[in-house]
Amino acid sequence: MPYPQDHRQETRERILASARRLFNRKGLSEVSIDEVMAGAGLTRGGFYSYFTSKDELYAEAITVFTRRFPSEPWQCGKEGAPPPADRPLAASIVDAYLSRAHFDDIEGSCPMLGLPSDVARGGRAVKAAYREVLGMMVGAFSAHLGPDRKAAYERALGIAALCVGGMVLARAVDDPVLADDLREAARKMAQSIGAWDRTPEPA
């Protein structure tokens, strides 16, 4: 009996979903193809019908993340509610990125948090995919940082560094109080750089 027409695409998506969960949890270098395929309910033998290498799989898993953003609960705010109308979207992204919900959501979190040192040792496809996610984040921030494009870009880079670096450090330490302090300090500094922490003066 032949497979349905969409069987191949569904199988590919299962592999990508398994890969993203594992890459986020363990990092690129510690995940094997066998683990990815087992997580998708498949055997290793079928892997190369869909991908040529683990690097290609990683790059595609990140690309899927950028296409579906925002889709995780931590990206959408409390219970998926839209950000307040009087608050810039970029400010809400910072709050969500450095939130406890994102901190706890290891498997569904931003792929830039999954052991960046692995990416530095990866191939071109891996680094290009990582850069794509960073570019998406920087673009989202710079759009809310005024008309001076160069200044907006520089500030957006700083905010992105605080978001990613703050969360990586928070997850790395074994002290939950320090982890919370790191996230909150990074959030406040990022909001300050964006000038999103300032309450408009009454007219």
Automatic annotation (TrEMBL):
Pfam families: TetR_N (PF00440). The keyword Metal-binding does not apply. Residues 9-69 form the HTH tetR-type domain. The keyword 4Fe-4S does not apply. Keywords: DNA-binding, Transcription, Transcription regulation. GO terms for molecular function: DNA binding. Residues 32-51 bind DNA. Gene3D superfamilies: Homeodomain-like, Tetracycline Repressor, domain 2. This is TetR family transcriptional regulator.
